[in-house]
Amino acid sequence: LSSSMASALEDALVCAVCLDLFQEPVSLPCGHSFCQACIRRHWNSSGDCRCPQCRRAIPDPLALRRNLSLAEVAEQLRARARPSVPLCDACPATPARPCHPDHHMHSLSLEQVQEALKATKEGILERQRGIERLDAATESLRASLAQERMECEQTLAQLAESLAQLSGQAAELFRRAEEESVSRSAEIRQHLERELSELRKRENSWSQLALRESTGEEAL
């Protein structure tokens, strides 16, 4: 494999949570894969069972499917990157894992020095890629949160506008109801006053008639 293809393959075998080669990878229904321990730890800390990459909800987080193919390839890549030449009598030092400075090191051949240098450079590149992936994930999360905040603010503004409109409509309804009530009360009052006036006129007429009748009887 070319270095670019090998790098792409290694990136495909890296967990997006821990940014390291897969350990006991599991695949989610959306197709993304993570270390089993990483995805469970992520869900426990966030309290939201969604895919960290596409944000798709996972209906059954307990039914995680082991991805044996990814596990096998990741382990093979890990084994290839693990040097086997011991460099120290006191500890299992390798070119990728130097021993303690106080330990006695074997006299190194040029090939071993080159191997150690290569492993160190690969370690540096791996950490740099990890930092880049972490920065990209952080920037993506920041952009996502900014977008969600903007959408939330827009929704709140729309709700405030709708609430203001409803408040104005309610005030108009109450004003009209009050006007109609006052107008209706005035009409009823006028009607009652007219009836009262008529009744008083009748009362006066009946009183005069009663007075005449009473006077006529006394004259007889």
Automatic annotation (TrEMBL):
PROSITE patterns membership: ZF_RING_1, ZF_RING_2
UniProt GO molecular function: zinc ion binding
Pfam families: TRIM_CC, zf-C3HC4_4
Entry keyword set: Coiled coil, Metal-binding, Zinc, Zinc-finger
Residue stretches making up the RING-type domain: 15-55
InterPro entries in UniProt: E3_ubiq-ligase_TRIM/RNF, TRIM8/14/16/25/29/45/65_CC, Znf_RING, Znf_RING/FYVE/PHD, Znf_RING_CS
Coiled coil (residue ranges): 142-209
PANTHER family assigned: B-BOX DOMAIN CONTAINING, E3 UBIQUITIN-PROTEIN LIGASE TRIM65
Protein's name according to its UniProt entry: RING-type domain-containing protein
Organism encoding this protein: Lepisosteus oculatus (Spotted gar)
